[in-house]
Write a structure and sequence with these properties.
The complex is a heterotrimer of chains A (245), B (287) and C (332). Chain A is of the alpha/beta class. Chain A has 9 helices and 10 strands. Chain A folds into 2 domains: 1-79 and 156-170 and 179-245, P-loop containing nucleotide triphosphate hydrolases (Rossmann fold), CATH 3.40.50.300; 85-154, no CATH class. In chain A, α3 (95-103) crosses α4, α3 runs parallel beside α5 and α6 packs parallel to α7 (197-203). Chain B is mainly alpha-helical and 287 residues long. Classes of the chains: A alpha/beta (245), B mainly alpha (287), C mainly alpha (332).
Chain lengths: 245, 287, 332
């Protein structure tokens, strides 16, 4: 069944077209990667789906419901969780408390929320640092906290925004394994924005490519990697098949 | 009908002075993104300076203008170097509370030094004099300040748009970091903003003395008027401050005709309504 | 109920703080026994009252990070309600206080809804603007005595229905009761769902929204709770002083003091407002009584406050408790 359907999504900022008639869907249990050169409109697309921007045209359908233009807290309650590129926290919350905030999304009682938070903290290997603040942790751990608190909201679709950015190669491998385990454990569907090819190509069932706001390719990682348009977009005309270099 | 015309004229004149008061606030905000709660207190001190020049040195408030401007500049620079610079490191809450503390400090320092009594300057070149042109009464005590306010606006605008330093100031207002990379010293620009901000509102103080009473409490009223003016004009917009001041002046005077007790209540309410329903004001904000 | 258990559960505080709380409780309960100076008792009553104000402010200002500088209007609404209901219809305190609180909370919802479209400085100034408007309205409303204010009629004391007593001991224990209730509530609050949501909001609103938090609504709720707290304080103020006017229950200085209690002591901490009040109230009282006698020193006490404010803002925005935590972190 289709967890997410994005239909002819348009988003403009003043005169700049960020997304133009973007259409794709994500099936239950899939891992779908979203790639494209910088400025392609990937994060804007995320924001339109999650509710930080209102699309200028098109629709977003989640689990059969039209959630176009819904604000972020509503899309989250409905089942879409997302992580952020920069794990910011100006606050004084400890790791466990951050995760509890997420848990409180669907749970009203503190005891229950605490139990879920502990469970997730353990699963994500954060038990040793659960009393520390985000700013005290290394980047890789911060990312895990970001994941943990998003998971705590008990989503059906998890959208990850450049979760591998800033990670070393071994950390990337760890992250790949972690994401697979998360997906299995909580029966999630994943939509991943990524620049780090090892992660997105190694993990995704399908990949969607954006360039300048437009979807230019869609398919398995192999198909996309060999797609001329994709190569052109990333590397320029010269490197597409048939070009002279 | 004539009565109305008088009121509107008076409102415009008063409004031009509100514009001048708001000018400094909007510049400081435009350059630094900081709201100077103490702005009204700078005004108040400018008023006292003009007053003391009058009482102790026999100067007419118009002659005392440079002294008030100087007091404003000094206060502005002192505030920047001694306090605001240190607040920048902290969270916004701290900045808010910091300039708030400054406001209280100046207000109660003046109260402590010079007592709570109302004072006025009762004699001067333009005080208490008025002329009638075309059937409309013009209060000279407000006409001359209004003209000076317009001059000040022209002067500041010229400075901002046509001098190197002024353009550097604009650059800092638009993007302090980028301006910094271009060799524009952010800290000096901030100090300049405070100097101009303080100086212009000090000037307004000397002008105000011609027709307003002087007391340590006056700062709050005028800073709220300044907030409403800046909000209406658009935070950071000099042009906005100019027109918005006039509008607020007319509003306040007209309300004053029918319901004098609520003259300023309306201004506070105006701030609230503007910021909630049209936050960009008339001319949008610089950022 | 879990909530009650949570309110009494201080186990997540270090031992030293729990012992401090215990000692403080014993001290507070027995204070009137060993101190009979009515000045000292008045200071303690004021201390509990302002702690209550500060704790309430803390919900929106401390945990939520939204600096509200107009809380005095809710003190006033409740104070005037209690006063007028008694003057006009002889309504006892225990009926008029809840009504006063409800009216204050209703107003806070009405104002809160548009108010929380704003953030940061704009929000703070707007809170000042609204409270000034309300003060002007009350000042010009003859029905509530305009500028002159209103005095409450005296009843035979001691009177528990109307909360009038000749001896300050009664007032002491009543404000202590409200204070304790407030403290327990705050202890529950900081561990509750709303408490966590506010802290997340303070940290980063976008992230908070991504975790399912309706940011605006959470802020409004916290603001209403803060209003309820200060409204209770206002009701107490009325029957304690037997006279109110807009410059004693609705003035800007009060709003500032309320915020200052929490910010000085340490916003976003349970003990913060209490510490802040413990410093500011005696400072104000003793300084005031010293200065008050010397006319030429008028305003000096507020000069001192303002310097304190500027120092906190520049040196340690997290207040005194922030300094304590900083010292602890270094030792770790």
């Amino acid at each position: 069944m289709k967890v997410l359907e994005v239909i002819e999504l348009d988003k403009r900022f003043g005169g700049v077209v960020a997304n133009s008639k973007v259409t794709f869907s994500v099936d239950e249990g899939e891992i779908v990667g979203l790639i494209g050169p910088n400025g392609a409109g990937k994060t804007t697309l995320f924001n339109c789906i999650a509710g930080y921007h209102k699309p200028d045209g098109g629709k977003v359908i989640f689990m059969g419901k039209d959630i176009t233009g819904w604000p972020p807290h509503k899309t989250n309650r409905e089942g879409i969780a997302r992580t952020f590129q920069v794990i910011e926290s100006g606050g004084d919350l400890s790791v466990k408390e951050e995760v509890m905030v997420g848990a409180f999304c669907k749970i009203a009682q503190r005891q229950e929320a605490s139990t879920l938070a502990e469970e997730i903290v353990d699963f994500m290997g954060l038990r040793e640092v659960k009393e520390m603040r985000l700013t005290e942790l290394p980047v890789a751990m911060q990312k895990r906290v970001g994941l943990a608190r998003a998971l705590a909201t008990q989503p059906k679709l998890l959208m990850l925004d450049e979760v591998a950015a800033g990670l070393t190669p071994s950390e990337i491998e760890e992250m790949k394994g972690l994401l697979r385990r998360i997906k299995e454990q909580w029966k999630l569907t994943l939509l991943i924005i990524e620049h780090v090819m090892e992660l997105v190509m190694g993990l995704s069932d399908r990949v969607i490519v954006l360039d300048s706001g437009v979807k230019i390719a869609e398919g398995t990682p192999e198909e996309v990697a060999n797609n001329e348009e994709v190569i052109k977009a990333y590397l320029g005309e010269k490197y597409a098949k048939g070009g002279k270099y | 009908m004539e009565f109305l015309l008088d009121a509107i004229t008076s409102g415009i004149l008063m409004g031009l002075i509100f514009s001048l008061i708001a000018l400094g606030l909007t510049i400081i905000f435009g350059v630094m993104d900081i709201v100077n709660f103490a702005h009204g207190e700078f005004l108040m001190v400018g008023m006292y300076v003009a007053y003391w020049c009058n009482v102790l040195l026999g100067m007419d408030p118009l002659v005392a203008m440079p002294a008030s401007v100087a007091s404003g500049v000094i206060l502005g620079l002192a505030s920047h170097y001694l306090l605001v610079r240190h607040l920048l490191r902290g969270p916004m809450v701290a900045q808010l509370f910091g300039t708030f503390g400054l406001m209280l400090f100046i207000r109660y320092m003046v109260l402590f030094l010079w007592g709570p009594n109302f004072r006025t300057v009762s004699h001067g070149l333009i005080i208490g004099k008025s002329t009638v042109i075309g059937g409309v009464v013009f209060d000279l005590a407000k006409v001359v300040p209004s003209l000076i306010s317009i001059l000040a606006f022209l002067g500041v605008s010229y400075f901002i748009n046509n001098t190197r330093v002024g353009k550097a100031l604009q650059a800092t207002a638009l993007d302090a970091e980028a301006a910094g990379y271009m060799g524009i010293h952010t800290d000096r620009m901030n100090a300049l903003a405070w100097a101009i901000g303080g100086g212009t509102v000090g000037l307004a103080g000397a002008l105000l003395v011609n027709f307003w009473y002087i007391t340590p409490e006056i700062g709050l009223l005028f800073v709220m008027i300044a907030f409403a003016t800046v909000a209406l004009g658009g935070f950071g917009s000099i042009k906005g401050a100019f027109y918005a001041g006039v509008i607020i002046g007319v509003l306040e005077t007209l309300v004053g005709v029918k319901a004098p007790n609520f003259k300023f209540t309306v201004v506070y309410a105006a701030y609230f309504l503007i910021v909630v329903f049209r936050p960009q004001g008339l001319f949008g904000w610089k950022r | 109920m879990e909530a009650i258990k949570d309110a009494f559960d201080f186990s997540d505080f270090p031992r030293s703080e729990r012992i401090g709380l215990l000692l403080f409780s014993i001290f507070s309960l027995t204070f009137p026994w060993f101190v009979s100076s009515s000045f000292a008792r008045a200071v303690m009553i004021q201390f509990f009252l302002f702690s209550l104000y500060g704790m309430g402010w803390n919900t929106i200002g401390g945990y939520g990070g939204q600096v509200a500088l107009g809380k005095a209007q809710y003190v006033g609404i409740s104070a005037y309600t209690v006063a007028m209901m008694m003057i006009l219809w002889d309504v006892p305190f225990w009926v008029s206080m809840p009504i006063g609180v409800i009216l204050a909370v209703l107003w806070s919802f009405m104002i809160g809804y548009p108010l929380f479209r704003l953030k940061g400085h704009y929000f703070a100034i707007a809170t000042i603007a609204v409270s000034l408007v309300l003060q002007d309205l009350f000042r010009n409303w003859e029905f509530v005595g305009g500028v002159r204010g209103v005095s409450l009629p005296f009843k035979k004391t001691p009177n528990f229905l109307y909360m009038q007593f000749r001896s300050d001991v009664y007032y002491y224990y009543f404000i202590l009761l409200f204070f304790a209730a407030g403290l327990l509530y705050m202890n529950w609050f900081r561990k509750s769902r709303l408490g966590y949501q506010l802290r997340a909001i303070k940290a980063n609103e976008d992230v908070a929204a991504s975790l399912g938090i309706n940011v605006r609504w959470a802020k409004i709720k916290a603001y209403a709770i803060a209003s309820a707290f200060v409204a209770v304080g206002g009701a107490f103020h009325t029957v304690y002083h037997m006279y109110i006017d807009t410059s004693s229950v609705m003035h800007l200085e009060l709003s500032i003091l309320i915020a200052l209690m929490a910010m000085l002591g340490g916003a976003a901490s349970l003990w913060g407002p209490i510490i802040g009040a413990a410093i500011l109230v005696p400072l104000d009282r003793y300084l005031g009584s010293w200065i008050g006698g010397v006319k030429s020193l008028l305003g000096l006490d507020l000069v001192i406050y303002s310097i304190i404010i500027m120092l906190i803002a520049a040196v340690e925005p997290r207040g005194i408790w922030g300094l304590v935590e900083r010292a602890r972190a270094k030792r770790r």
